[in-house]
Each structure stands twice: as structure tokens, then as C-alpha cells.
Design goal:
This is Wadjet protein JetD C-terminal domain-containing protein. Helices cover 45% and strands 12% of the residues. Helix 1 packs parallel to helix 6, helix 1 packs across helix 7 and helix 6 crosses helix 7. The chain folds into 3 domains: 119 residues, no CATH class; 99 residues, no CATH class; 193 residues. Strands 5-4-7-6-8-9 form a 6-stranded mixed β-sheet.
């Protein structure tokens, strides 16, 4: 019998389609000269990345020992029937080799030849039929509108997966940037070239229906289609976070209450904080009661790396995280510790959840049900935090979220002071020792 059966060859065909479809579709726009006498490649693994057409292609079915064929030749005959039936249905060619089996010459299948991409797609099945049809239509458009484009396969691979609306946006955006470059290279009547256009932020690009997020997420594809290494866009501004000064003496002497920090900024806050409170939500950070030497940072979601990059945060004697009692809040806490901050948590345990669960919610800020997902790997959570995380992840908790704003601010203020006192006692004891 052959080492590989029909399902194995189908998997091989599907893999080759995946690896070569964009190159094949691109070649259809300007097919290279072909020698009809040339043999197709003999092995998909070796030839998938080689120069030349991907199809036709010979897929080896493997070679069984003659003794094995002779021991169960009836099974091979049945398999041979399966091969022939399958080949007839899918319009592929079976290549035979002569083998000695039990002293007689027998024709056994050695290769399957798939002639072209269309046949391969029929074998591979969904989603390839629709994807290749879309890719061919869009490849023709890209080749027609951007004939100088140097990496059509990569452009097709990205463009074929866009919605119709996004593909239309792509064409308009690429046309805009190419026109912008063309205008920048024109010479005025006096013979002097005009000044290059001023760089823009993605939000400033004047194309109807194009928003900054679309351009941010598709810049690579736009560069590929246009062949432009530089689109003339300003780099993203450094990540930043906002914080509130909590020190009563600083505020009493007219010091500013609110400030911000840009990653990499050499500027320091008005004072070096001894205590840093990272609050998941803005309102609790802004409204937190006075804390001598304290600063409250607006966590605003998953910004652990941004906040951890600030030297004055890392240098604080005590860094505390306080977030919502939900899966997200605990996962964010885990991320802060993974970023290297020795963060203490407060009010993020089962006891606090049970005390305030009557104020919890099943809906998010958009009025949709809070999604509960299976537990993720959170190796940096401590035992009491893990207990709450597991309770919430089982989906059996009374409510999936208790927002931190539902807890009166005097409660976290008291808890934070207890953590400050504990840290001070530990520091004093360390000095004595």
C-alpha cells in the first residue's frame, strides 16, 4: 500500500495552496514565459518557495516495501480503486511506478499531479474558492491601477482579506499618497522644485471616509501597494498617562493637582512620590483623598508597560494597584507585576467582592453583557487574588463585575493607609536588623 492516502494528499495540496496562492494569482497578471516540456516539481516541501510556477505539482504518495505490498496486496488493490475514483472526480493525474510484488510486475501509484491552482482549490475546499475568486478580481485592479508595484503577491495577500468597503478605501488611500509624492517632485515655472509636503498625522490625512485607526492598522499594506517606504506620516506620539497629586502640603502651597507623563520624558513630577496608587479608572484617581507623598495614576486599562517605564514610579517605596473586581482588573494586576513592578493590590479579594456584590453589574459601559472567558494564565497573582479570579472565571459568580467606583472612597483610603503603615513598619524593622 502507499504510505500516504487520499486525506494525506488533500492536506498537502491545502498546505501548498496556502503557501503559494498569492504568488500564483500575481503571476496570472503577467505570466512568465514557460517551457511546456519542463517537468513539474517533485516535492512540495522543497519547491514551495523555489522560483518558477507553483503548478502543476507532483505530490509523492510514498513508497511501501515490496514485502508489505505482497503481504496484503488485496488492501492495496482496494486503495488503488480509491485513488482512481478520487483522481477522476478531481481531474488530477496519477503517476505510476513499476514494482515487483510476489514475483510479478505491478503498477503502483507513486505521485499525484495537480495541474493548476483551480484544481488545487477544488481539492482544498473552503474557504479557498471564495478567497481565490476575490484575490483574482482585486489583483487585476491592483495591477491596473498600480502597475509599478514591486510586490504584488504581498499586496494581494493583504488586499484579498479586506471587506469590499476597506478595499475601496485602500485604493483611494494609495492613490492619494502616490499623488502627494508626484506633486512633491514637480518643478515650478522658475525651475525650482517645490518644498516637500509637511508631514501629517494619520488623523490629518484629508481623505473622505478614512479614519486614523484604519490608517494606523493598514500602513504596511499601503506601503506595499504603493511601493513607498515613507508615507510622510509623523510617528505616533509617545505613550502617556495622567496622574493626580495627593500630597496635602503640595496642594496647600498652590501646587498643581493634575499632571501627565510621556514615556521617555526627562521631566519629573513636582515631587518624588513615596506612595504611588494606580487606579484602573479615572474618577477614583482624580477624587482620591489626600495622601502625604502620594500620587494617583489613571491606569485606563492595560497600560502596564507604559506606567512601569516611569523611573519615579519604580523608585517609589510603595506601589499599589486598585482595580475593578472582575477578570479584567485581576489580569491587569498580573500584567503590572509581569512588567517588573512590585505592586501590592488592595480590595481585590473574595471578601471585598462579597461585601459589595450587591452593587455589581452584568452590563458593560455600552449596555452589553459583560463577557466572562475561561481562566487565563495569571502566574503573578497571589492566593487571595487567585481565589477571586477563579470565582469570576467559573461564570457562577452572582455578578461578573463590581466597579471600584461603587466602593466609598473612605474605604480604599483607609486600606491604603494600612498598607503604608505596614510598609513603614517593615522598613523600620529592616533598619533595626
Amino acid at each position: 500500500m502507499s504510505v500516504r492516502g487520499v486525506p494525506d494528499i488533500v492536506a498537502k495540496v491545502r498546505a501548498r495552496v496556502e503557501n503559494t496562492w498569492a504568488t500564483t494569482v500575481a503571476a496570472e497578471q503577467h505570466p512568465p514565459p514557460r517551457d511546456p516540456a519542463s517537468d513539474p516539481a517533485s516535492d512540495p516541501e522543497e519547491a514551495a518557495s523555489a522560483a518558477g510556477p507553483a503548478w502543476p505539482h507532483r505530490f509523492p504518495v510514498g513508497r511501501s516495501a515490496s514485502a508489505d505490498l505482497g503481504a496484503d496486496f488485496g488492501a492495496y488493490v482496494r486503495q488503488l480503486g480509491e485513488w482512481r475514483d478520487w483522481a477522476a472526480v478531481h481531474d488530477v493525474v496519477l503517476v505510476y511506478a513499476t514494482r515487483m510484488v510476489a514475483g510479478t510486475r505491478q503498477q503502483v501509484v507513486s505521485h499525484v499531479v495537480v495541474p493548476d491552482l483551480n484544481t488545487a482549490v477544488r481539492i482544498a475546499g473552503d474557504p479557498w474558492t471564495d478567497l481565490i475568486a476575490t484575490a483574482r478580481t482585486r489583483a487585476a485592479v491592483l495591477h491596473r491601477q498600480f502597475p509599478d508595484q514591486q510586490n504584488l503577491p504581498r499586496a494581494i495577500r493583504g488586499a484579498a482579506k479586506l471587506s469590499d468597503v476597506d478595499f475601496d478605501v485602500l485604493l483611494r488611500v494609495c492613490g492619494y499618497f502616490l499623488l502627494r509624492v508626484e506633486l512633491a517632485h514637480q518643478v515650478d515655472g522658475a525651475g525650482a522644485p517645490p518644498a516637500p509636503p509637511a508631514p501629517l498625522t494619520p488623523r490629518q490625512v484629508p481623505i473622505e471616509g478614512v479614519h486614523a485607526k484604519w490608517l494606523d492598522s493598514h500602513q504596511g499594506l499601503v506601503r506595499t501597494v504603493t511601493g513607498l517606504d515613507n508615507l510622510g506620516l509623523l510617528p505616533p506620539h509617545p505613550a502617556r498617562f495622567h496622574f493626580t497629586y495627593l500630597d496635602p502640603d503640595h496642594l496647600a502651597h498652590g501646587g498643581r493637582r493634575h499632571d501627565s507623563y510621556n514615556v521617555g520624558d526627562a521631566a519629573l513630577p513636582a515631587y518624588e512620590p513615596r506612595v504611588v496608587l494606580i487606579s484602573e479608572n479615572k474618577d477614583t484617581a482624580i477624587g482620591f483623598p489626600a495622601v502625604p507623598g502620594g500620587i494617583a495614576i489613571e491606569g485606563e486599562g492595560r497600560g502596564a508597560a507604559t506606567i512601569a517605564s516611569a523611573p519615579w514610579v519604580r523608585a517609589a517605596s510603595l506601589v499599589v494597584y486598585w482595580g475593578d473586581l472582575d477578570q479584567d482588573g485581576l489580569e491587569i494586576l498580573n500584567e503590572f507585576r509581569a512588567a517588573g513592578l512590585p505592586v501590592r493590590s488592595m480590595l481585590m479579594d473574595v471578601e471585598t467582592y462579597e461585601r459589595y456584590q450587591r452593587y455589581g453589574t452584568r452590563l458593560d459601559k455600552n449596555g452589553k453583557p459583560v463577557k466572562v472567558h475561561s481562566a487565563r494564565d495569571v502566574p503573578h497573582l497571589q492566593a487571595d487574588e487567585v481565589a477571586l479570579y477563579e470565582l469570576l472565571s467559573r461564570g457562577s459568580a452572582p455578578v461578573p463585575r463590581v466597579e471600584q467606583e461603587r466602593i466609598p472612597l473612605d474605604v480604599p483610603a483607609t486600606r491604603l493607609q494600612a498598607l503604608i503603615d505596614t510598609a513603614a513598619d517593615a522598613g523600620a524593622q529592616a533598619l533595626v536588623l
